[in-house]
Amino acid sequence: MTTFLELLANGISVGAVYALIALGFVIIFKATEVVNFAHASLLLAGGFVVARLHSSIGFWAALLLGVAGAAAVGVLIEFLIIRRANVSSHSVLAIVTIGVDIVLTTELTRRIGTEVLALGDPWRDQVVHLGAVGIAQTRVVALAVAAVLITAFLLAFKHTGWGVAMRATAEDPETAALMGVRRGRVSMGAWAVAGALATVAALFLCVFPTPGLDRSTTFAAMKAFPAAILGGLDSTTGALVGGLIIGVTETLMSGYQNDLAFLGRGIGDVAPFLVMIVVLLIRPAGLFGTRELARV
Amino acid sequence: MDVHAPPPPEDPGLVVRDLAVNYGPVTALRGISLSVPRGSIVAVLGGNGAGKSTLLRAVSGTLRFHRGGITAGEIVFGRTRLSGTAASAVVARGVVQVPEGRRVFARMTVEENLRAGSLGARDRRAAAGARERVHTLFPVLAERARQRAGLLSGGEQQMLAIGRALMARPAMLLLDEPTLGLAPMMAARIAETVREINAQGTTVLLVEQNAAMALSLASQAYVLEVGEVALSGPAADLARSDEVRRRYLGIEDDRAASPAGASAGRPALARWSA
């Protein structure tokens, strides 16, 4: 029972981090109808900035710069490529983002090399004990930070002019333009927010018990794709629920993999994608999605 | 006083000159010209595919959403050119469109729809005043503020679409078939509101298939046919012209068709009007 509770708590925490990534993925899709396959490289870029700078300027300043840096990379991708690519179909743009992802990831992994970079976080490897249940301090912080960021995002999405412009554009871009909403700004904002959230997610993907930022971090980030897709690509609620489902599934499957030996080792890494496939078989638009995935 | 001095340049309102629009290989407008003087209501009539909505898209700068573009001519409002500018710049100049089919943001609340309308306004701080004006014109929008717009009736959605446009405090309102699909009572109500909005100082360009209603509101009217201006003139004259009566008002010339007594004995279904 204790094992189960520990795994569940870890799963929820990991899930909240996936939710941060999936949320960025979803808002880019809502604002621009582009499925952003470059998301994992945004995350890697943000994490890389933090890893490189924390020893010279301190962790918090490095985190701030990492968030700003990934946001800037997002804005640049939007401004230089997505906006200018005069293509007839959004699926072509999705493929363009795969290209962007390959270029960025290749360059970043070249710089990272074979190192495992520490992020210099202040939580280190302490463990918090709640009764018999022990949880890494980083996981507790991850959950708290993700909860705060997600709440702040949802409030802004609901109540600010930016949020109203974003939702109006997502629902009907032409009519939003008739209201004077500038689509370019809305879409730039979406890419910036997505980059910023991805950096925070990168931080929590790379701290204890993970050894640090290395070239495999993008694979961890990839698990947020099934989270966004199974929740429904155009639903913020879907991103949150999808993130939690993926996080909990992955952690439980990894934790009990010795009991699930017939499924083979490493089922935890595969489970997110299996869950996604099963959900899509039953609900093709995802749990909360309204648009058919056929257009992707 | 120098009699040779040119008269002070009067604000001409909206002027469209020789406007031609293509959607790819398809020509939608073939060089139309019209003008909407400040403070007036001008109607544009015509059947489906005549180019009415294309004209409004060209003014609002949203042709690119339909893969269309202006190939010739220009659109000027006041002293600024609207053709070639972005949709947001057109709104910022005070020219705001109420699109055909209402197009309210169905997943957002009534209040949020109004808020969306004020996003491109010239002075966003004036939004509170604008909201008050909208709520006075359409009290139902205040009552339903927190309801999802998709749950409103067709007439209420049309009110919301007009109210949303008014949130930008427009100098000129472009209305695309505001009575389309509405019950006669509601259509009359909308017509009355358009008259009131105009009386408060907003210039109106009204595109309609409902010619009787449009001609009763407008001072000037243009009839579009396959992308060209077929007829134009004072609305009252057009309403009397045989061609408009026959083609857009559905009125046959009774004197020629039947004796006067017969038409009195057979009550024709009068076309409803505002």
Structure commentary:
The complex is a heterodimer of chains A (296) and B (274). Chain A is mostly helical. Chain A has one domain (2-216). Chain A contains twelve helices and two strands. Chain A is globular, with a radius of gyration of 19 Å. Mean pLDDT of chain A is 88; it is low at 292-296. With 274 residues, chain B is an alpha/beta fold. Chain B has a domain at 9-94 and 205-266: Rossmann fold (3-Layer(aba) Sandwich), CATH 3.40.50. Chain B is 35% helix and 24% strand. Classes of the chains: A mainly alpha (296), B alpha/beta (274). Chain A binds chain B through residues 161, 164-165, 167-168, 171-182, and chain B through 60-62, 65, 86-88, 90-92, 96-97, 99, 103, 105-108, 112, 115-117, 119-121, 124, 164-165, 168.
**Please, how many domains of chain A?**
1
Strand content of chain B: 15-25%
SS element count, helices of chain B: 12
Number of strands of chain A: 2
Query: Any idea what the radius of gyration of chain B is?
Result: 20 Å
Largest interface: A-B, 17 and 29 residues
The structural class of chain A is: mainly alpha
Q: Beta-sheet strand percentage of chain A?
A: under 5%
Give average pLDDT of chain A, whole number: 88
- Oligomer type: heterodimer
Mean pLDDT of chain B: 86
- The fold-level CATH name of the domain at 9-94 and 205-266 in chain B is Rossmann fold
Query: What is the overall shape of chain A?
Result: globular
Key phrases:
heterodimer, A: 296 residues, mainly alpha, two-stranded antiparallel ribbon, 12 helices, 2 strands, B: 274 residues, Rossmann fold, six-stranded mixed beta sheet, four-stranded antiparallel beta sheet, globular, membrane (chain A), transmembrane transporter activity (chain A), cell membrane (chain A), BCAA_transport_permease (chain A)
